[in-house]
Recover the amino acids of this structure.
């Protein structure tokens, strides 16, 4: 449907697996507890309740440990062993006895789940998936979603704003020369990426809300978009079915 060849998709997947193989944090704008707890509170507001939660691409568990007190049972999934190692340290430190961690990717995760969820979420992950992979993810997630549940995709890179942010247009000290320098730098990065057949951007792909909506429509979901509170170039997609009674 989305025209990406299987070989290219698998090459990209290998790139991201390697990229995250030794990472130990989710690359939040600030890493202090105060900032992460504010981010988590914003996300909890959009998750809007539920008793069970799947956090796909949970990384080092930075948000997951803040979700834990609000849910009965949580499952964190990531393909990176180093990220999961950090996540288990955090879970132990914060004494969250209700979190299970699973090492898996967007294809293998589904067979490893033992129950379905009220909320399936992913924060800062969709950018590492192609549109076809997002389509598969939403289809599979819909089979593991309880009645009245929601799929909440946080912090999707917005192609309408991200390029402007990258060249520093939102920066307080932006000036003509600094913007010109950033444009030249981006041009060099893009050139080197295509010569080395790497993704153009280590932050992954930006996806237009209309493309995400098309996927949601295909599986008879409603979708609401919300601007990300702490990242001006990102947005959240809240995916749900109005036909189902809201049970939570
Ligand atoms: C930017 S980090 C965000 C981590 C976490 N959600 C947070 O907000 O702190 C992205 C995470 O997604 C994971 N990831 C990316 N693509 C994945 C995939 N296809 N399957 C499983 N995990 C994936 C990476 O290993 C990484 O831990």
């Amino acid at each position: 449907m989305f025209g990406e060849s299987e070989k290219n998709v698998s090459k990209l997947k290998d790139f991201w697996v390697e990229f995250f193989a030794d990472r130990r944090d989710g690359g939040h704008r600030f890493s202090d507890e105060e900032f992460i707890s504010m981010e988590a509170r914003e996300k909890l507001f959009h998750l809007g309740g539920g008793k069970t939660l799947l956090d796909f691409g949970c990384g080092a568990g930075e948000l997951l440990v803040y979700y834990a007190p609000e849910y009965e049972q949580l499952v964190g999934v990531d393909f990176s062993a180093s990220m999961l190692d950090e996540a288990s340290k955090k879970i132990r430190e914060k004494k969250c006895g209700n979190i299970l961690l699973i090492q898996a990717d967007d294809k293998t995760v589904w067979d490893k789940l033992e129950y379905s969820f009220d909320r399936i979420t992913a924060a800062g992950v969709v950018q590492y998936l192609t549109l076809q992979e997002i389509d598969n993810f939403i289809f599979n997630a819909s089979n593991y979603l309880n009645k009245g549940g929601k799929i909440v995709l946080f912090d999707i890179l917005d192609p309408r704003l991200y390029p402007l942010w990258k060249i520093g247009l939102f920066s307080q000290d932006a000036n003509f020369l600094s913007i010109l320098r950033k444009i030249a730098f981006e041009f060099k990065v893009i050139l080197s990426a295509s010569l080395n057949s790497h993704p153009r951007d280590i932050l992954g792909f930006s996806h237009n809300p209309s493309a995400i909506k098309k996927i949601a429509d295909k599986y008879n979901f409603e979708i609401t978009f919300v601007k990300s509170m702490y990242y001006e170039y990102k947005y959240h997609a809240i995916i749900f079915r109005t036909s189902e009674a809201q049970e939570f």
In short: The pocket of S-adenosylmethionine is lined by residues 16, 20, 26-27, 57-59, 62-63, 78-80, 83, 105-106, 123-125, 128 (CB under 6 Å).
